[in-house]
Write a structure and sequence with these properties.
This protein has 47 helices and 16 strands. With 1021 residues, the protein is mostly helical.
């Protein structure tokens, strides 16, 4: 032995003991030996040597100390190496040359021998381990850290002594141990296991009175010193001695395993559900996993997770019963009460399992690790299935897991037990419609379900497919055979009483949810309550920060807690793209807690923050699209500013964000209306038009604006009312409802004029002018545009200015003044460039391209369309891409490059169809018809023209519809006359029998707002 630390430090060389001259050398060497084969950082060595204030030269002194130790070891022939490894040092020692390593090896050998029933060998190993001790570790070394380590080593020694004594008791050496135990109990009076061992040894030596006196002495000491009564082990031992329990005489000792006699086979599984439905794939996967241990060395383990009430316990017990024949030595089951205020203690569960397998209660060790060792010993070489239900976390589970192949484990938890190595994860979700109806059919009878199939489907929807809720609903209907299924559906339709209706016969959805809720931290409970105010189907994690009025990281941690508790589900995505949702019944419970836990003032403040955050984001998205606050006015509602780091992730692509958050925006507008936040309501509704226009969500546009119009009318908010009237007028123009648009826009301009809101007035006025233009009132339109133009320039609204100049250009074009039209479009381009509105820039480029095409300026037209295409490709504006490619196809067609035109038209048509952009698809179809007519392919031309005619009719685009009809007539007439294609078709004029020319195709009066060709948002107030 070179090194001895199980007592005062000793260093032994080839010629004998070696003295270390400096105390710090002893400290450093002792610390390295404690962590043999592991790296000890320099910082830890410094703290060990100088616990209070290390000198500035501490690091250098440690280096000198290590160097000196290396020299000492080499000088005395000690073959141990101290390596320098970042961030410190590591000593490499032969395990047979350090007493601590020899002690650990001997104890491990003793435990292994004991588990195999070789008690004599086990006792010999423990005796060898204990013989290595020669005093108090690190005695005389002045280091608090080492003294703490010494206390830990002494605890390991006394634990080994207890195991050694127990082995000797099992070998019937009770007389030999009495003297040792008396001394040990005197030295360690609070060690209850030693005292119980002494009582048992005395009892077996027929010294019952002495044994009881040992108990009384121990009880007195515990009460006087700690104020505690003796533990279960001592109490049971006293009871057994008083009753002269024969098992104490024939038992095998304290903590030594099951008593002699036949081994009991536990059958602890609860009854299985007879109406188990669904999850066939999961059941088969679990069976395969749990039976896959034929050649394995590990324990097959399945960890079932899911929200409360989803059927985890039913699934686990179903599989466990199905596999009972494969585990003939028993099935152990425990409800771990993981979501209760007091989860089951692992030591208690192991105690139950051991008693079920025949171990006497008085033989149960007191400490958890000792019970765990006994349990692993008892189940070794046996085929036992362990089911641990409702687990709280991995730490609760680990001590109860078997360690040998042949056993298997099923775990259930509301949390994902991802920290258990080798556990096969099984996620249980709600039942789909078919399986949910099947479950109800098993409970109620299929005839009853078939008779009211529609009501049964509604019942499943109100229960959200949650098996617990379905079982409660089914049980209520079974108990009330006079009820129709629709009677219960009517009761559940009121969300405020839904949870109250879902309780019956001890099954209670609300109580089940309450278990998860009560287990949350108070801040997480509050976030859970507040999430019910964000009533969209799913939501992004960013909303948690404004809800809680905190920083994003704190909010994210609280959301993670809700996800781990399975009160919030991850709908899809990861990172900033992750979407979350509340199950409908969970949301109903959250609303109950909101009403109970938040005052009306608190709910109002939360709504202001949440809607303020939506406003902040919607404004940023609009600015990203338009280069600023163009074509829109704002109210004075407070904004809740999100961190820039969050914005970069959430709103990197503004239109994609709009698409993702569409339902959330609707819910936020609705919340603002419900809470009477009139300024926020109309402002958010108006800011959201960017989404509604681009994606043609006209129903959403109307819904949000009518809500805002109502709330602004109630509050007397004239500015907000004018904004909503103006925007609804724009919507009417989008939908070709010209008669509805005029009164809305007229009232909006009057209101804006009355309150002196010039910018809003100009935005509404330009839409009236546009209405005049497309209804043939050119002079009125020009006056309106010119009046609006000055006001828009004063307001700095360059995007609206560009739109107005584009319309004025169209008026000049229609009047035959092509030079003026070109000049106006160049001014429109300049305005779009000043606004840095790249989409609007692309739109004007497309209009300019059409003008050049009309003037047969093909080079300029191609350049304009190509520049527009380059822009929209960068912006990922696929609608704009369809328009630009359509323009390039028209240029190619005019140049006679038919293959190029055909390829470009095909790409543009595919894009338009994919995006459901009927208007641009109709225009492309019209050009495709011209293409085929130009090539003499009249059948294909007719098909394309009919398609354009059909689409324009559906869009109520009357003028365009007439043009399509005229083209159909032209093609049909040409076919009847069997003459070559018209010379001008697809090139200069395309006579359509109505006196219209290609120039008339430049501006489609039925195209969205008529303000642009790229299908982007323009018609604003």
């Amino acid at each position: 032995m070179w090194f001895r630390i199980l007592g005062p430090l000793e260093l032994i060389g080839v010629t004998g003991p070696v003295s270390l001259t400096a105390a710090r050398q002893s400290i450093v060497l002792s610390t390295l030996l404690l962590e043999s084969s592991r790296i000890v950082s320099v910082e830890r060595l410094i703290d060990t040597v100088w616990p209070d204030k290390p000198p500035t030269t501490a690091r250098g002194q440690i280096q000198i100390c290590v160097s000196s130790l290396r020299s000492t070891l080499a000088m005395h022939g000690i073959d141990a190496t101290i390596h320098t490894k970042q961030p410190g040092y590591q000593i490499e020692v032969d395990p047979t040359k350090l007493d601590l390593l020899m002690f650990e090896r001997a104890v491990a050998a003793g435990r292994k021998a004991a588990s195999g029933g070789r008690l004599t060998d086990a006792a010999q190993s423990f005796a060898e381990a204990l013989s290595l001790w020669h005093g108090e570790p690190f005695a005389g070394i002045p280091s608090p850290i080492l003294q703490a380590a010494a206390a830990s080593l002494l605890e390991r020694r006394i634990a080994a002594i207890e195991e050694y004594i127990d082995l000797r008791m099992r070998l019937h050496q009770h007389q030999e141990t009495v003297g040792e135990l008396v001394d040990l109990v005197e030295r360690y009076p609070l060690r209850e296991r030693l005292r119980a061992q002494l009582m048992l040894a005395l009892f077996r030596c027929d010294r019952r009175a002495d044994a009881l006196e040992v108990y009384r002495d121990g009880r007195r000491i515990l009460i006087d010193d700690l104020g505690l009564e003796p533990g279960e082990q001592l109490r049971l031992m006293e009871k057994g001695i008083l009753s002269d329990d024969p098992d104490l005489r024939i038992g095998t000792g304290i903590g030594g395993g099951p008593r002699s006699g036949p081994v009991q086979v536990p059958r602890m599984l609860p009854i299985a559900q007879s109406d188990m439905t669904g999850h066939a794939g999961l059941i088969e996967a679990m069976r395969e996993r749990l039976l896959s241990d034929a050649s394995a060395t590990g324990v097959p383990m399945v960890a079932i997770s899911g929200r409360g009430g989803v059927g985890k316990t039913s699934l686990a017990t179903h599989v466990a019963h199905a596999l009972s024949d494969a585990f003939p030595d028993g099935q152990l089951y425990a409800n771990m009460h993981g979501v209760n205020a007091e989860p089951a203690a692992p030591a208690d569960v192991i105690g139950r399992f051991l008693r079920a397998m025949g171990v006497l209660a008085i033989n149960l060790p007191e400490q958890l690790d000792e019970r765990a060792e006994m349990f692993r010993t008892c189940v070794a070489d046996r085929r036992i299935l362990v089911v641990l239900d409702n687990c709280s976390d991995e730490n609760q589970v680990r001590p109860i897991l078997p360690a040998t192949a042949g056993c298997a484990v099923i775990l259930t938890s509301r949390h994902r037990l991802s920290g258990l190595s080798g556990a096969y994860p099984v996620e249980v979700d709600v039942l789909g419609l078919d399986h949910a109806l099947e479950l109800l059919g098993k409970m109620l009878g299929r005839d009853r379900i078939h008779a009211e199939e529609s009501a049964a489907i509604s019942l499943v929807r109100f229960c959200g497919g949650l098996p617990l809720a379905l079982r409660v609903a089914g049980a209520r209907l079974v108990a009330r055979p006079h009820w129709a299924v629709s009677d219960l559906v009517d009761r559940l339709s009121d969300e405020r009483r839904r949870l109250s209706e879902l309780a019956h016969g001890g099954l209670d959805v609300r109580a089940n949810l309450a278990l998860s809720y009560r287990a949350l931290s108070p801040p997480a409970q509050r976030l859970f309550r507040l999430l019910s105010q964000a009533s969209s189907a799913d939501f992004g994690g960013w909303i948690c920060a404004p809800l809680m009025d905190c920083d994003p990281m704190t909010a994210g941690d609280l959301l993670d807690e809700l996800v781990e508790a399975r009160l919030v589900e991850v709908e899809h995505g990861r990172g900033s793209r992750a979407r979350f949702r509340l199950h409908d019944l969970v949301r109903a419970y959250a609303r109950e807690q909101l009403e109970a836990g938040e005052t009306e003032a608190e709910r109002l403040a939360t709504a202001r923050r949440l809607v303020g955050a939506w406003l902040f984001l919607a404004e940023r998205a609009h600015r990203a699209e338009y280069g600023g606050d163009h074509t829109v006015i704002h109210g004075e509602a407070p904004r809740w500013r999100l961190a820039e780091s969050v914005l970069d992730k959430v709103i990197a692509d503004s239109l994609a964000w709009y698409d993702t958050e569409r339902l959330g925006l609707l819910a936020a507008v609705r919340l603002a209306a419900e809470m009477g936040l009139d300024d926020a309501c109309w402002d958010l509704a108006l800011a959201s038009v960017t989404l509604f226009e681009n994606r043609r969500y006209f129903g959403d546009w109307r819904t949000t604006h009518e809500l805002a119009l109502e709330v602004t009318a109630r509050s007397g908010n004239r500015r907000g009312r004018a904004a909503m009237l103006s925007s609804l007028g724009s919507l009417a123009l989008f939908e070709q409802r010209h008669d509805d648009a005029r009164p809305l826009l007229t009232e909006a301009t009057q209101l804006f004029g009355d309150i002196g809101e010039d910018h809003g007035y100009a935005l509404a006025l330009r839409m009236l002018a546009f209405l005049d233009r497309i209804t043939g009132k050119a002079d009125a339109a020009m006056r309106g545009f010119e009046d609006a133009l000055g006001r828009l320039r004063d307001a700095g609204d360059h995007v609206a200015e560009a739109h107005v100049m584009s319309n004025i250009a169209q008026l000049h074009l229609e009047a035959g003044d092509r030079e003026a039209a070109a000049h106006d479009l160049k001014l429109a381009l300049a305005a779009a460039e000043r606004a840095n509105a790249r989409r609007v820039h692309a739109q004007v480029l497309c209009r300019l391209g059409d003008l050049h095409l009309t003037l047969s300026e093909l080079n300029e037209a191609e350049r304009a369309f190509q520049d527009a295409l380059d822009l929209v490709l960068v912006l990922q504006d696929r609608v704009g891409e369809a328009h630009a490619k359509h323009g390039l196809a028209s240029v190619a067609l005019r140049r006679g490059r038919h293959a190029e035109a055909e390829a470009m038209l095909s790409a543009a048509a595919a894009l338009a169809a994919q995006l459901n952009e009927d208007f641009i698809e109709a225009r492309i179809s019209l050009t495709i018809a011209e293409f085929h007519q130009d090539r003499g392919q009249r059948e294909q031309a007719l098909r394309a023209a009919f398609r354009a005619q059909e689409l324009f009719l559906g869009l109520h685009a009357d003028t365009w519809y007439e043009r399509a009809v005229a083209l159909v007539r032209t093609i049909e007439q040409a076919a009847l006359e069997a003459v070559p294609p018209l010379a001008g078709t697809g090139r200069d004029a395309l006579s359509n029998g109505a006196g219209q020319t290609r120039a008339d195709l430049v501006d489609p009066p039925a195209a969205a707002s008529g303000e642009h060709l790229a299908g982007q948002a323009t018609a604003r107030t």
